[in-house]
Amino acid sequence: MFSRLRLKTPKMITQKLENLQITVPSAADDAPHIKNTCGRPNQAVTKPISLNADTGEVMVRKSTGKTKVRKGQSSDEYEHQRSHFFDVEKGPIWTPVGWMTKENPLQKLDSDPEFDISLKQARQKLISYCHILYYRKRYENCAQACENLITRLETLDGRKKVQKEIDELKQMLDHCQTHSV
Amino acid sequence: MSVACPQVRTLTKKNDPLHIIRTRKLTHNRPVTIAGPMVRYSKLPFRQVCRHYNVDIVYTPMILAREFVRNSHARMADFSSNENDSPLIVQVGVNNVTDLLRFAEMVAPYCDGIGINCGCPIKEQIREGIGSALIYNPDLLTSMISAVKSKYGDKLRLETKIRIHDDWDQTVELCNLLCDAGVDWITIHGRTRTTRSSVPVNLDAIKYITEKIKCRDVPVIANGDCFTMKDFQKILDYTGVDGVMAVRGLLDNPALFSGHDKCPWGALELFWHYAMEFGGLPHQLLLHHLHCMFESMQLEKNLHNELMNIKTTTELIDWFDRYFILKRADEDGFSEAIEIPYKNKSKV
């Protein structure tokens, strides 16, 4: 309960701050001291105000001239992201030459519950797998992979979102069949 | 609960960017060559192609620290790498110390240095106090540099890529402050925040600033309008800098630092190879790279128009195989051709 309260307070403060008539300084404020600005006062150049150095919360200026608070990140939130990055994601996406064809990612789809086809990144990887087979002129393997993937994508919730991907796979399948003849 | 972080990548003579900048003249008889950051385009496949052609240090595109430390999807979209992707500078867009320190902690095990973007002229970033806004905010910029250098010292290299001010003495003043804060080297793009890229880069400004901060013993890299090795030499001779960073020039011709005045066909074959091997490059991005390289090669106009109308990667592969001899990595002569190998020139 208290943690909820703690979360709400910064939001209230944030809104109050946005409503206050605080002006985020810009480089134009330096103009009196700076010679030769060629008539360009650098008004768009924001100097953010730090609201909380521990969380990185800053106030910046919107295009309308109004202020906008960029929310900070608590230590706990950062710890969570950091451990997810190092322990779950295992750092950045690591792609040495040959990584994609080392194991068939379509098989991984059945064996690894983390590999979720509803995620764009996962679908991109699978389509990239089809592309590399096509590029290497392994048309039979590519056709199999395309067929498999089309079946899965067609039964996916929110199919409309992936229609473009299905269309490209169908086109690739069609071209594979032409090349195989 | 605190987690154990992987260690910062160890810097050796092979991957320490500062060591490379300082020693290239002795070891390679030429100053350092750098592939700078390009929004969207300096992704892993392109970086790998550049490394085949005498590029010593390569940058990632600008990654926004704020998004990277908060969002796993942003991380996946923004940063991929591998063991051959070194020396690598990860460029960051940032407007506060906390985000930068957190960002540094997360990327330091996978790169050889961090570059703070103080040159991006895009309005949306400037309003956030990111990019070239930072050259007008020396207090914030130096506090970010000091924070990173106090924490990591020489274990992690830190660079700033700046633009010039209308008043060059203001840039000199800024550079002196950056040196005081402990920056490892400074890259100067010879245009102001509002100068268009069609206006020639101001080499006089770079020369002026370089001379004024020579006594600080912090290397200066020049950036802007390097399209051939002739430009490279001209920039070096005129400004007295320690090295040159090319950006748009490399996009058209990743082999420019190898002395090729136009993109060799082999570079294009390598790009195809890496783009397919690593995967994940959206079709429009792939197409744009090929378009830029073909512009440098002066591809026949009607073929170029055809290329720009191709909607899918499958069609693109077919198109290449229809008109050109596009060798794959397992074929003899892969990546060696210079001229465009048309299959049937009479059809072109």
Automatic annotation (TrEMBL), chain A:
Source taxon at top rank:
Eukaryota
Q: Which organism is it from?
A: Lachancea meyersii CBS 8951
Query: Which protein are we looking at?
Result: LAME_0D09318g1_1
From TrEMBL, chain B:
The Gene Ontology biological process terms listed for this entry are: mRNA processing
Q: What is its EC number?
A: 1.3.1.-
Its name, as the record gives it, is tRNA-dihydrouridine synthase
Which residues belong to any copy of the DUS-like FMN-binding domain? 34-334
Which cofactors does the annotated protein need, by name?
FMN
The entry's keywords: Flavoprotein, FMN, mRNA processing, NAD, NADP, Nucleotide-binding, Oxidoreductase, tRNA processing
What's the catalysed reaction?
Answer: a 5,6-dihydrouridine in mRNA + NAD(+) = a uridine in mRNA + NADH + H(+); 5,6-dihydrouridine(20a) in tRNA + NADP(+) = uridine(20a) in tRNA + NADPH + H(+); a 5,6-dihydrouridine in mRNA + NADP(+) = a uridine in mRNA + NADPH + H(+); 5,6-dihydrouridine(20a) in tRNA + NAD(+) = uridine(20a) in tRNA + NADH + H(+)
Pfam families, sorted: Dus
* GO MF annotations in UniProt: flavin adenine dinucleotide binding; mRNA dihydrouridine synthase activity; tRNA-dihydrouridine20a synthase activity; tRNA-dihydrouridine20b synthase activity
Enumerate the active-site residues.
C120
Task: Please describe what this protein does.
Answer: Catalyzes the synthesis of dihydrouridine, a modified base found in the D-loop of most tRNAs.
Q: Which family does it belong to?
A: Belongs to the Dus family. Dus4 subfamily. Belongs to the dus family.
Top EC class, one word:
oxidoreductase
Q: Where does FMN bind?
A: P37, M38, V39, Q91, H189
InterPro entries xref list: Aldolase_TIM, DUS-like_FMN-bd, DUS_fam, tRNA_hU_synthase_CS
